[in-house]
Amino acid sequence: MNKHAVTETVREQVDQIDNTYSSLHALISSCEKGASAELTQKLKHFEQCLSDIHKIRLAFNDLKESKNKQKEKICDLRRQVTLKDGLINSFASDIIGEFESQGILRTEEDECTPKNEERNTMMVLCSHCNSIILREGEAVWMNGNEMEIPLARQKKGGDLTQCEKLHGWWTVKDMFSFENVGFTNSVDGIRYLTCADCDFGPIGRVTEDNLHIVAPSRVKMGLDSS
Predict the structure, then answer these.
(1) Which of 142, 163, 141, 165 is nearest to 154 (CA)?
(2) CA-based R_g, the chain, Å
(3) Distance between CA atoms of 129 and 225, rounded to whole angstroms?
(4) Structural contact between residues 120 and 221, judged by C-beta atoms closer than 8 angstroms
(5) Cα 117 to Cα 9: distance, rounded to the nearest angstrom
(6) Tens digit of pLDDT for each residue in 16-67?
(7) FRET partner for 221 with CA separation of 20 to 30 A, picked from 23, 85, 153, 170?
(8) How far is the C-alpha of 216 from the C-alpha of 164, rounded, in Å?
(9) How far apart are CA 58 and CA 62, in angstroms?
(10) What's the pTM value of the predicted model, to 2 decimals?
(11) Helix, strand, or coil (residue 126)
């Protein structure tokens, strides 16, 4: 039975109680005029029972009003909670922004990203076969303008080369600083870097000023190659 049907049923029952109460109350009044003492006492008891039924009937209205009041209170509480959450989030955002601007707080991304011109404190390894590409201290992190490097795996059926955009990379000036690296033939005037052991790549590229850059997404950092 759905909610509407239940409401209609309750309403019908309430109407029946009202009609029964009115009819019986009139009957009691008429009987009391010529009834014996015993009958009068029984009718009084019966009238009290009817009065109790009538109170129950009135409770339906109280229950309905209480339900509406409860809904209003719940809605009001929700509004207060929403307002409180908004104030807390605004306050937290202001505090975090202030801490970050002062260098007191660093985000998780900042913690993982080296500082500009910082040397690698761990070995740079091939993400595919774990071979050592660079040993500790051989590369310098550089943030720069956007640079593109082709994806290692190209989607089939595409006419254009899919590329990854880089905003930061490991830089190496001397090619002999690499522990293990391969070079591709020039493609559109650009030579790319690969892993010399498994040929995975490109892991980087050579710039016009002969600077070797390694994409952080194509390699991984580690203390050893095991």
Answers:
(1) 163
(2) 42
(3) 9
(4) yes
(5) 79
(6) 666 666 666 665 665 555 555 655 666 666 666 666 666 665 655 555 556 6
(7) 153
(8) 11
(9) 7
(10) 0.49
(11) strand
